[in-house]
Amino acid sequence: MSHFSIRSHSDMLVNNLSESFNKMILEARGKPILIMMETVRTKIMLLIVKKKEEADKWKGTLCSQHVVDLVQNSCSCRNWDLTGIPCLLALSVIHVKNEFPDTYEQTWHTKQTQIQIFSNFVSPVRGPKQWASLSNMLPILPPPLRRPPGRPTKVKRKEPDEPQTTERLSKRGVEMRCSKCKIIGHNKRSCKGEVGQNIPVKRHQVGV
Would you kindly state where each structural domain of the chain is located, as residue ranges? Predict the structure, then answer.
């Protein structure tokens, strides 16, 4: 913390803002440079106007206010809900009521919960030095390494519920046509017919 710069006035050390911006301009990244710049400019312009209108609706000199619920251990800033630790807003309310913040901690932060989590243990086993040696037993070798033909795949194998990439067009529903016999239903690798059998030849018209 001693080497952090105070110029940005922010405690965020992640690139979530950059990822959100890249998501916003995703549709414009594949367009020509002029169209891309105009699309990005329009999106930023609309975003600035939207944030300005939201700021004009704030009441008072500070930013939007939050609601603290000590009964439900919740705050509208969502920090208390996500971490289970009272946020600064909740601590202010607790201090006004002359109560202790420890009473509003979630149960998973207590000592009793941590002891219960680590109550089970893994029993130790004998190491290689304590194994019984068998002089008549042949050494167990690893199985032979078999490399499949072709180059190794670099694309990640996706799960059935994982969304597919949108960079390539899907071939689902596309009818396969053989380039050898021009019949639908197979390709030229599994084709058993003759080249262009019973297929009328189309004449190309050449413009003058």
Answer: 1-62, 68-115
